[in-house]
Amino acid sequence: FPSHDTEPDLLAFSLKNSTDVASLVNSTVVGNGNVAILAVGPVGSKFNAINNILIGKPYFLDSTKNTADIYFDAVGTSVIESGNIKYGLRSAKCNTPSVLCVNPGLANDSLDSSDPHLLSTSPAKDSAVQNTLIPSKDYFNVNRVVPDRGAVEFK
Length: 155
Description:
- By secondary structure, the protein is mainly beta.
- Helix content is 0%, strand content 34%.
- The protein is built from no helices and 14 strands.
- Strands 3-6-11-12 form a four-stranded parallel beta sheet, with no helix packed on it. Strands 1-4-9 form a three-stranded parallel beta sheet, with no helix packed on it. Strands 2-5-10 form a three-stranded parallel beta sheet, with no helix packed on it.
- Strand 7 (58-59) and strand 8 (62-66) form a beta hairpin.
- The chain is globular and about 40 Å long.
- It starts with 10 loop residues before the first strand and ends in a 37-residue tail after the last strand.
């Protein structure tokens, strides 16, 4: 766990070799760390962020700012984003048509009692970007017929 003098992040990926590839696919992440996802590695390494729901809350060490968007070592790791929904993230980048900066419509996105189930009006419903990395079942082992974004299929 990070010490108090470092900047704790929600998820961190450390790629060691130039041929390394890490992926976060169809996940739902809600948190109050410094950065939602940190990906660091040498030149040539790649990080894929596909069909995730990323929700930032006020940063627990400085409540005047929210959790930041995906951060990567600009010198090394390249990040490929597709189909993500971002909400409440500081400096969120929504620069491709498939990446949305909107409320994802979760049943509850609080830190105390989050519920990642999608509401019937959720923009994540039936809108996953097609990709070979999409798992065939969701977090609760429900089949993904017309895949949703995030960890849980609407039912």
